[in-house]
Design brief:
486 residues, alpha/beta, 2 domains, six-stranded mixed β-sheet, 11 helices, 21 strands, binds zinc ion
Length: 486
């Protein structure tokens, strides 16, 4: 049994100026793929042979360049063609995130799946495992025989999901069942910060899947929340059910759709949220320390560019106006160079040149035109951000790094010389706080800052979404589930 395995894994904000390309992707090929995915098939090497295509995975970012996507595609489809011409292919297993935005394309994953189907023909099973924050277009749904996604967010069931898809493709090849599948589009688009499965209504909604699968005798049932930071018709919730009985598959899809729509009013941010000014005022006035502020609109963990300074400017201004002596750390800003304003204009300093500025107080020009008069305190090294520098105006410190990063662990702060407990206010670019930060926080606010992953979706300039769609058209328009059967 020869199973071709490959895929593409990125969520990319179309509202980001960042472009995700070769340097952003970790690429698995050859033996790397066999090792990574072979763990799901105990019989690999004997009954099952994994035919490696290519799998590329990147941190969330901006739209993927066509250059990268073309290069990925040339290798992926080239290897698939070779495999078909060589020993043949009995099945194809796709590992796709589902929220890739590629410049000039509306539905990259659907296109990939459709092209695979075109190449292998109708008789070769194709299975696909996704992230529940991915999008399921009709094109994608129609092209694959089996489709599943995570059932938890944060995603603690990634391995289980990958294994489910692997087992499904083996079963499809071995048993040749008459598998039916249903899809229902749910007209809701929500950010992940409102749909965690660790709180209601996410817990119960996803919790119903196992029961529905058992009761209807299904192969599988999945719920997608979709990815909100792309302006594409496919961005919305979706449900897919699979099984051998048409009636059961259809009934189960309708049942989950009703449940999903039924809890639409209950999705709420997993923590306290505020607009920028009140959040800053609350943090400056609070005695809780450290008080965490999440600059959510630029969260690189969801596709933010990591370079916005709008919230920092407001915080800095309020801080100076209040004459606050509080210790504040802002983590962080991505900037490949730092401008230094002098008599003859602005000189862009690369990170290699910044150590010689340590100890000096200068007018620094940070991204988006933020003039920050600060002392260059010290350099540090961040595992993903590379060279970093601490810039301080009194007790307000800004961490700047030469590559995109996210300060999500205590260790990273310590590397930069910051002890969380010594700070009154810590600003991070994320949505809900990572576990170590959450444990350290005496209080916190998720701030509704603008950016590439603005959590206040209705203020983003969408044009191509499928309407009606909550929250854009309210939550109370009429919806009756339409079941798409294949
Ligand atoms: Zn996800």
């Amino acid at each position: 049994m020869r199973i071709a395995v490959g895929g593409l894994h990125i969520e990319s904000s179309e509202f980001s100026e960042y472009r995700s390309s070769f340097e952003d992707f970790r690429v698995l090929e050859g033996e790397g793929i066999v090792e990574r995915y072979g763990i799901y098939a105990p019989e690999v090497g004997d009954a099952i042979e994994i035919v490696p295509l290519i799998h590329a995975r990147a941190l969330p970012g901006g739209p993927v360049t066509l250059e990268f996507f073309d290069a990925w595609g040339a290798q992926f489809f080239g290897l698939l063609e070779e495999a078909m011409a060589g020993g043949g292919v009995d099945g194809v297993l796709l590992y796709l995130h589902g929220a890739a935005s590629v410049i000039g394309m509306d539905d990259p994953e659907g296109w990939i799946a459709a092209r695979v189907r075109e190449m292998v023909g109708p008789g070769v099973p194709v299975a696909c495992a996704m992230d529940l924050h991915g999008n399921v277009s009709d094109q994608l749904f129609d092209a694959v025989d089996y489709l599943t996604c995570y059932r938890t967010a944060p995603h603690v069931d990634e391995a289980e999901t990958e294994m489910r898809a692997f087992r499904a493709i083996v079963r499809l090849i071995e048993e040749r069942p008459q598998l039916h599948r249903a899809k229902v589009d749910i007209p809701i688009l929500l950010p992940g910060e409102k749909t965690s499965t660790e709180v209601e209504p996410g817990t119960s909604l996803y919790g119903m899947l196992e029961r529905v699968i058992a009761e209807h005798g299904l192969w599988d049932a999945s719920i997608w929340m979709g990815y909100p930071w792309a302006d594409q018709p496919r961005c919305h919730g979706a449900i897919v059910t699979l099984g051998t009985s048409i009636a059961e598959v259809e009934a189960a899809a309708a049942e989950i759709a009703d449940a999903y729509w039924g809890v639409r009013h209950e999705f709420a941010f997993v923590g306290p949220t505020e607009a920028e000014e009140p959040a800053i005022a609350a943090a400056l006035a609070s005695t809780a320390r450290p008080f965490f502020l999440s600059d959510m609109g630029d969260n690189p963990g969801a596709g933010g560019f990591d370079d916005t300074t709008g919230f920092l400017q407001k915080l800095h201004e309020a801080y100076r106006e209040a004459g606050s002596g509080k210790r504040v750390t802002y983590a962080s800003i991505y900037t490949p160079t730092i401008g230094v304003r002098g008599e003859r204009g602005v000189m862009e300093m690369p990170f290699e040149a910044i150590p010689m500025l340590v100890g000096r107080t200068l007018t620094l020009v940070l991204p988006h035109g933020f003039d920050f008069c600060a002392t260059v305190e010290r350099m540090f090294l961040d595992a993903t951000g590379g060279e970093g520098v601490v810039l301080a105006d009194g007790n307000l410190k800004v961490l700047a790094t030469q590559a995109r990063t996210q300060f999500g662990t205590r260790r990273q702060f310590e590397n930069a010389g910051i002890t969380l407990e010594d700070e009154d206010i810590v600003v991070v670019k994320m949505g809900y706080l990572e576990p170590e930060l959450s444990a350290a926080a005496e209080d916190w606010i998720m701030v509704l800052t603008p950016g590439a992953v603005d959590q206040d979706l209705v203020r983003l300039p969408y044009e191509h979404l499928t309407h009606p769609l909550a929250p854009f058209d309210g939550f109370d328009f009429a919806f009756s589930p339409e079941v798409r059967m294949r």
